Amino acid sequence: VRMDALGLALFTVSGAGIALAHGAPLVVAVLMAVVAGTTGGVLRDIVVNEIPDLFRPGGLYATASLAGALVFVACLSQGFEYGTAAIAGAFIVVGLRLLSVRLGVAMPSPQWANDRERRRA
Fold first, then answer.
1. Between the CA of residue 91 and those of 49, 65, 94, 98, what are the distances in Å?
2. Is this structure's pTM higher than 0.70?
3. Partner of 85 for a Cys bridge, out of 20, 39, 80, 106, CB 3.0 to 4.6 A?
């Protein structure tokens, strides 16, 4: 889980940085960061024939990536140096991901999943 969180942070921050370097608006850079961060983990899990963490209930994954990307972009827009902003964004991603796994924090199930469970009962 630790290495997964570090990989998620690395790809999230680098995805936002590359998008910004190509002149993308801040919102697009944040979205590209989440896509870049989560896609790496999904591909890794598919290659080793596992269900990707992104699609399993449990610890925050895409949400941690989104929070880290927002922190990274916000730091850059406030004039922080690139390295400082990258460390802050990566710290948020890793911290949220590891804390959510350890504490069992997860996003609520979508309404359609709850409806399906009620129909089965």
1. 29, 11, 5, 11
2. yes
3. 80
Q: Which two tokens stand for residue 118?
A: 């009620």
Q: Rounded CA gap, 7 and 13, in Å?
A: 10
Chain centroid, CA 35 distance in Å: 8
Q: What is the pLDDT along the chain (121 residues), one digit of tens a residue?
A: 789 899 999 999 999 999 999 999 999 999 999 999 999 889 988 999 998 888 887 788 999 999 999 999 999 999 999 999 999 999 999 999 999 999 988 887 777 766 666 677 6
Which residue type occupies 101? V
State in Å, rounded, how far the first CA of the chain is from the last one: 34
Residue type, 87: I
